[in-house]
DNA sequence: GGGATTTGACCCCA
DNA sequence: TGGGGTCAAATCCC
């Protein structure tokens, strides 16, 4: 059952990749005035679909379910292809795992523990050398039911005022946000920026107006994305405040993190006016 | 009862 | 070799 679920998701991803390639092909066959940033954005998305597919295949393989060879995100075959055979040796598997190698990571420092819209499950806590506070280890709740490889580590790195460092590892391949996010394009904030507002069950999020800004459009496929907290919106902060306070930025990693909101981004692309 | 968290054990890798 | 990441049994909580 898990295998068929993973298989369906791989098919979905690959189908999506084909659609994007067709989209790109149509654009290339048009008047030839394809915006380079748009093309790069499409290529990024296509690459993401194939990376996700490989990720799903790898995860189902690690569960001993898949018949596909284990493949890392960089395309290399798993160095220990016999690992899946060990899944039949269930006696005391404690500590028997394949530590992931250099996966994409990015960090965020915040004064509070914030809600990022995904469901996390804590699977460990560790006292770190020369650190006052233990580090918590969390994985995506949908690690097993959807093969999501995302995980994060949270550690308090400062007491007064408290600062929490969250390190994200891997990308969400699941599709389970608590609530869909809202996408805002605001030309008044900063060039090449998009703000995402994730819904939260505990806060009364103000509806945020979606403001297409034509001069921002070439920046949509830029690698720079910015993610803001819902709480900032609900507190009435304006977009300028968001960028000066509790917003982090990064490049390809954030793009991948927003994968769960891919449909919204796709609709954003679809809404682009003709140049 | 089932899902989430805690916690000690185990193993990878710098 | 030891710090850090992950596993899984025990425990907690709703």
Automatic annotation (TrEMBL):
InterPro entries linked to this entry: WRKY_dom (IPR003657), WRKY_dom_sf (IPR036576), WRKY_plant (IPR044810)
Cellular compartments annotated: Nucleus
DNA damage listed as a keyword: no
SMART domains reported for this sequence: WRKY
PANTHER family referenced in this protein's UniProt entry, alphabetically: WRKY TRANSCRIPTION FACTOR 21-RELATED
Domain WRKY: from-to ranges: 109-172
Name the UniProt record assigns to this protein: WRKY domain-containing protein
Domain of life: Eukaryota
Chief location bin: nucleus
GO MF terms held by the record: DNA-binding transcription factor activity; sequence-specific DNA binding
Record flagged with keyword Oxidoreductase: no
A GO CC term assigned to this protein in UniProt: nucleus
Keywords: DNA-binding, Nucleus, Transcription, Transcription regulation
């Amino acid at each position: 059952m898990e295998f068929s679920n993973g298989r369906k998701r791989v098919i979905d991803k690959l189908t999506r990749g084909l659609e994007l390639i067709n989209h790109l092909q149509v654009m290339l066959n048009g008047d030839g005035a394809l915006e380079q940033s748009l093309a790069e954005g499409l290529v990024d998305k296509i690459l993401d679909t194939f990376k996700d597919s490989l990720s799903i295949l790898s995860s189902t393989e690690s569960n001993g379910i898949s018949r596909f060879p284990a493949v890392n995100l960089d395309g290399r075959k798993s160095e220990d292809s016999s690992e899946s055979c060990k899944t039949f040796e269930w006696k005391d598997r404690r500590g028997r795992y394949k530590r992931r190698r250099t996966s994409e990571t990015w960090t965020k420092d915040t004064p509070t523990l914030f809600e990022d819209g995904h469901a996390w499950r804590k699977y460990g806590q560790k006292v770190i050398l020369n650190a006052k506070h233990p580090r918590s280890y969390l994985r995506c709740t949908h690690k097993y039911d959807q093969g999501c490889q995302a995980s994060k580590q949270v550690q308090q790195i400062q007491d007064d005022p408290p600062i929490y460092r969250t390190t994200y590892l891997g990308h969400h391949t699941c599709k389970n946000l608590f609530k869909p996010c809202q996408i805002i394009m605001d030309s008044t904030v900063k060039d090449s920026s998009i703000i995402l507002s994730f819904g939260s069950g505990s806060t009364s999020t103000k509806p945020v107006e979606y403001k297409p800004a034509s001069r921002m459009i070439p920046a949509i496929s830029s690698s720079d994305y910015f993610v803001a907290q819902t709480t900032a919106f609900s507190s009435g902060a304006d977009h300028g405040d968001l960028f000066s306070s509790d917003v982090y930025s990064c490049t390809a990693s954030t793009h991948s993190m927003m994968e769960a909101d891919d449909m919204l981004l796709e609709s954003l692309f679809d809404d682009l006016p003709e140049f």
